[in-house]
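Researcher: Going back to the complex we discussed earlier. I've cleaned up the inputs and rechecked each line, so this should be the final set. Can you rerun the prediction on the complete assembly and write out the structure?
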Amino acid sequence: MFEVITLLTLTVIGYIFGSLNERRHFRSILEREETLRGVSTFTTRIPPQPYSGASHLATGNVVISIDYFKKISAGLRSLVGGRVNAYESLVERARREAVLRMKADAQRQGLDMIFNVKLETASITKGAKGQIGAVEVLAYGTGLSRTP
Amino acid sequence: MTDIIITNIEVVPGRTITQHLGMVQGNTVRTKHAGRDIMAGFKNLVGGELIGYTELLTESREEATQRMVAQAQAIGANAILNVRFSTSSITSGAAELFVYGTAVVLE
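Model: Rerun complete. Updated structure for the full complex:
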C-alpha cells in the first residue's frame, strides 16, 4: 500500500514539474531560435566557392533527463507498443537545444554559416545504480563567415 | 589550440592542402563523481537539463580534442579535416569520448 502511494506521488510530482519544465524549455527554445536566425545551418558538405574567410568547428551539446512521469508512461507504453510521445518530445528538445548551442558557439567565434551539420545522440541510461535516464545530443559542424 | 584549423568537411575553404599526414585521434574515458549522480537522480524525478553531465561531457570532448591537436602538432600539421566525434559507454557510469580526423599541412 505504502509503495503504491509513493509511486503515485512521484508520478504526480514528475508530471507537474516535468511538464512545467518542458513548457518553459520549449518557450526558451523558440525565443532563441528567433534571435539566432542569422546563423544559417547547412547539411551539405560543399562550402561556398570562392571563400577566403575563417573556418572553425562549432559544437553544442546538452544532456536532458527524463522525469518520473515519462518513465512510467514509457513503461506502460511498452506493454502495448506504439509511439512513445513522452520520449519523442524529450529527444526533440535535446536536439533543438544542441543545435542552438552550436549556433551560439559559431556566433561567439564570429561565424554565421555552419556547414556539414552532424547530430549525434547517445543515451546515458546507466548511472550508479542503473537509475539515471538521460539523453545526450551533440551537434557540430564547420563554421564559416559570410563576410570574409 | 587556436592556431590549428579544425573542420568537419574535406577542405579548408580558400586554402590549398600541400601535404597529407594521415589520421590523428584523441580520446578520454570519464566517469562522474557521486555528488553529480545524486543530483542527477533527483533531476530524474522532475526532468530538465543535467547541467553537471553537460559540463562533464563538454570538458571531456575538449580534452579529447586537445589530445588530437597535440598529436597533429607533433607531426607538423596545421589543420585537421573531416573531424568526427563518437561516444561509447564502456561500463555503467563511464563513457568514452573519441575524436578523430585527418591531419594535413596547408599552404
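Model: Worth noting: Chain A touches chain B through 54 residues (CB under 8 Å).
Researcher: Good, that matches what I expected from the previous run.
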